[in-house]
Amino acid sequence: MLIRKVKGDTYIIDTGFQVIPFFKLDTGKIIMVDCGLLDEREGIVNLLASEGLKPSAILATHAHTDHIENAAFFQKEFGVPIIMTEVEAAVLDSPLGLKTYFYTMSVSDIMKHYNNMVVKADTKIGMRDENVDILGAGFRIIMTPGHSPGHISVVTPDNVACLGDALASLDVLNNSKMMFSHTISRDIESKRNLFELEADKYVVSHKGVFDEIRSLIQPNIDYLEASANMILDLIEVPIGFEELYERVTKHHVIRVRDLKRYYMMERMIRPLIEYLIDTGRLRCSVDEGRLYYIK
Asked: Metallo-beta-lactamase domain spans which residues (predicted)?
């Protein structure tokens, strides 16, 4: 785990799994853009302490475990205010809010696996807001929903665009069997809108710092389209969800050995099915009380 400078007072923490941007103030205080996984917590805290850096605010791009799991800890232990969009804040506010993400899981299972995500936002960004001031530093807000309902990208005072999961690097795309997107049609629209974003540097959480992102945008869109087409190719006759789930996991040679893994895969497969329905390539039918997907 190490810290690398991006531009001016904008830096990243490279955890190995992802990069976490932060903006450094003159006082040694830092404004973090996301805050990492629980498993990364000790390394992040120790690294910042060794560099004399004090977490003083967290601006969250979205409410997924790898971006927000340490927020409640930083809020409690360091008094760090948490800033996020009103949509993502509603998700993280309580176990019932989390159930809007993990909608097929019981509340008890959600709290067993994802209790570290629950946190109450100190400041909520409206979905039409374009700027936010944090400790005297101005950040530009770019709405990029799709990967999650209230996902944002943020531009630091150094004109560095922190994209969260709005895009992934080519290495990540090439080495991933499946990737999550909450609403694929909206995600693709947000990705296309990034063609208009001008910044001096671009930080992609998974993973890296780039001088330009135009070469990343279409491959990210193509990845989602290819994932949807893979689902479509596995459907020959009317098929129920469980059989289709089994075909997808066998196709990718993914072993589902526990409940958490089952639900994770389910959350990746269902949006692809919904995208095929939204684009008219798949339809639903009910026969004797059972739902089937039909080309």
From this structure: 18-206
Alpha carbons 284 and 291: distance in angstroms, whole number: 7
Bridge-based pairing state of the strands 131-134 and 54-59: unpaired
Residue 26 predicted with pLDDT over 90: no
DSSP bridge pairs for 82: 58
Kindly report the three-state secondary structure assignment for every residue of 86-139: HHHHHHHCCHHHHCCCCCCCCHHHHHHHHHHHCCCCCEEECCCCCEEEECCEEE
| Residue from 101, 136, 227, 225 nearest 176 by CA | 227
- Tell me how far apart the alpha carbons of residues 71 and 107 are, in angstroms, rounded to a whole number: 21
Contact (CB, 8 A) for 57 and 135: yes
- Angle between the 259-278 and 107-114 helix axes, to the nearest 10 degrees? 110
Q: What is the Cα–Cα distance from 269 to 263, expressed in whole angstroms? A: 10
Mean pLDDT of 111-130: 94
Task: Answer whether residue 190 shows pLDDT above 90.
Answer: yes
Q: Which phi and psi (to 5°) does residue 194 adopt?
A: -70, -15
pLDDT at 27: 87
* 174 burial level (CB within 10 Å; 0-12, 13-18, 19+): exposed
Provide the residue type at 234 as one letter: L
Q: How far apart are CA 284 and CA 282, in angstroms?
A: 7
Kindly list the structural domains of the chain, giving each domain's residue range(s) and its CATH number in brackets, ordered by start.
Answer: 2-224 (3.60.15.10), 234-294 (no CATH)
Q: What is the mean pLDDT of residues 224-238?
A: 95
Question: Rounded CA gap, 151 and 58, in Å?
Answer: 15
Q: Is residue 105 classed exposed, middle or buried when 0-12, 13-18 and 19+ CB atoms within 10 A define those classes?
A: buried
Q: Provide the whole-model pTM.
A: 0.92
